[in-house]
Amino acid sequence: MTSSSSVAGRHATDQPPHILVVRNDKLGDFMLAWPALACLKAAAPEAKISALVPAYTAPLAQQCPWIDATIIDPGDGAGKAAQRKLLDRLRDERFTAMLTLFSTPRVGWLGWRAGIPRRVAPATKWAQLFYNHRIVQRRSRSAKPEYLYNIELAEALLKAAGRTPAPRPTPPFWPLPPGTATARRESIAAELALDTRAPWLFLHAGSGGSAVNLTPTQYAELAMAVDSRLADQDLHPQWLLTAGPGEEPIARELCDSLGARGLQAVVLPPRQGLADFALALTAADLFIAGSTGPLHIAGCLNLPTAGFYPARRSATALRWQTCNDESRRLAFSPPQEAGESDMAAIDLEAAAAGISALVHRRVAATSES
What PANTHER family does the annotation carry (predicted)? Predict the structure, then answer.
């Protein structure tokens, strides 16, 4: 068996940094890695950054301005041939460093076998044995936002390489060319016959199978309360309901419920893939969802967001905070005395007041610009 030290010796010492960043789990987790990727590029702009991601998030990795190349991870369930092919690819790329934001034994083993000389990961579980730079974070305490934990790991890699981290980048972590949002809004308006002058409130009622979320009935109550408050200010929002794969029936049911109550609501038709869906969100004046991938896409785009979170320690609003500006971020959870996943205990009237105030500020700022 080839040792990691002998493979590492074949890496050129004078080549520009080539960094492998691993975030190969869910969509929301991947979007919260973008601040760390931006951190790496800010401190080492000459570096080539490759991302190891699952096929599902690859379309967004290919859109990320901080990623130069994408490598598809076949996953834990792939056979030996696929794992061997991935290992050969990692060896051929001659990486100078590896930053693992989500550590598993398989990925750690691959990085070690590929001979990547500098390997950084959280000091958690026995997978850390494959890394030569282990960072103690104790993420299970949920004392910081996930994206900040990721930034700290990126800074640890830079320091291990003898570099001084640059000042931390600020939102948006997914910057887009000027006019992108306007073009998307006009395109969707033409597609669905919508009024571009009205506030557009996107609402994603699905959970992606992982997040505890409000029920469609609760979302209908919330939308009614928000709509009523905005109507008092002579603002009449357009509700656009989004859905992930398999979630379309939920969106249609909610749309019918809102329509029956007199609200202007439509279901956003399926887009041409995940990247097209993500860019469609730029048309929103505010995005409402549980702690799901789409919410974190919106945060990365620095859109105003309203997120609904359980009180469970591993899933708190602090831990899974969106990475947009603080002034554009709202979060709602059950009170401490309620059950940790008792989303029915969330005060929807208070949430509606906060959301309508944020929409009003957004509309006022837009009209002044």
Answer: GLYCOSYLTRANSFERASE HI_0523-RELATED, TETRAACYLDISACCHARIDE 4'-KINASE-RELATED
Full DSSP string of 146-210:
HHHHHHHHHHHHHHHTT-PPPSPP-S-SS---TTHHHHHHHHHHHHHT--TTS-EEEEE---TTT
Under a CB-based contact definition with an 8 Å cutoff, are residues 159 and 141 in contact?
no
C-alpha–C-alpha distance, residues 237 and 249, integer Å? 23
Q: Are strands 238-242 and 200-204 parallel, antiparallel or unpaired?
A: parallel
- What sign does the dihedral 230-231-235-240 (CA atoms) show? positive
User: Cα–Cα distance between 93 and 262 in angstroms, integer?
Assistant: 57
Domains of the chain: 4-160 (3.40.50.2000), 180-368 (3.40.50.2000)
pLDDT tens track for 308-326: 999 888 889 999 999 999 9
What is the C-alpha to C-alpha distance for residues 275 and 279, in angstroms, rounded to an integer? 6
Write the CB contacts of 261 (distance below 8 Å, at least 6 apart in sequence): 220, 224
At 130-142, the pLDDT tens digits run 999 999 998 888 8
- Coil, strand, or helix at residue 297? helix
- ∠ CA 105-110-114 to the nearest 5 degrees? 150
Q: Which pair of tokens denotes residue 353?
A: 């007041």
Evaluate the CA torsion angle 167, 172, 173, 174 in order and state its sign: negative
Tokens read off for 120: 């950084």
User: Tokens 């509309």 appear where?
Assistant: 363
Q: pTM for this one?
A: 0.94
- How far is C-alpha 1 from the geometric centre of its chain's CA atoms? 39
Residues 164-189 have pLDDT tens digits of 999 999 999 999 999 999 999 999 99
Distance, CA of 332 to CA of 87 (rounded, Å): 43
| Residue 172 to residue 261: CA distance in whole angstroms | 36
C-alpha R_g of the chain: 22
